[in-house]
Amino acid sequence: MFNAITLSQIFVTDQDEALDFYVGKLGLEVKIDQDLGFMRWLTVCVPGEPGREILLEKPGPPAMDEATASQVRELLAKGATGGWIGLTTDDCRKTYEELLAKGVEFTQEPTERPYGIDCGLRDPFGNAIRINQPVRVG
């Protein structure tokens, strides 16, 4: 029935700050940045992987009224929206060191797990991000 997941969404409170973080620090690239009049449609993707986008959505119209958007912003600041992103790398420790040098603040250093090596961080808005180096099978 389905053959791909093409779009995921997380909330951010400032889309320009989100660009600085996701593109400037994490190294993702802008896929779409379009002013629709009623909202800014801003997506990023892993370079060379344009088939999977992350919508960096600002809470508000047209998806929700201002009262709801205010509640979402409050939950987001607490890291309680449930939104998170998983990124894969070939070398978790090297990626960790490179991002640390760019000023990215981590919540967890690279750690050996049964499924690979991973580490954790939060974006400037409270969204959790996991970086994983999967175990190589074979």
From TrEMBL:
<dbReference type="Pfam" id="PF00903">
    <property type="entry name" value="Glyoxalase"/>
</dbReference>
<dbReference type="InterPro" id="IPR004360">
    <property type="entry name" value="Glyas_Fos-R_dOase_dom"/>
</dbReference>
<protein>
    <submittedName>
        <fullName>VOC family protein</fullName>
    </submittedName>
</protein>
<dbReference type="InterPro" id="IPR037523">
    <property type="entry name" value="VOC_core"/>
</dbReference>
<dbReference type="InterPro" id="IPR029068">
    <property type="entry name" value="Glyas_Bleomycin-R_OHBP_Dase"/>
</dbReference>
<feature type="domain" description="VOC">
    <location>
        <begin position="1"/>
        <end position="134"/>
    </location>
</feature>
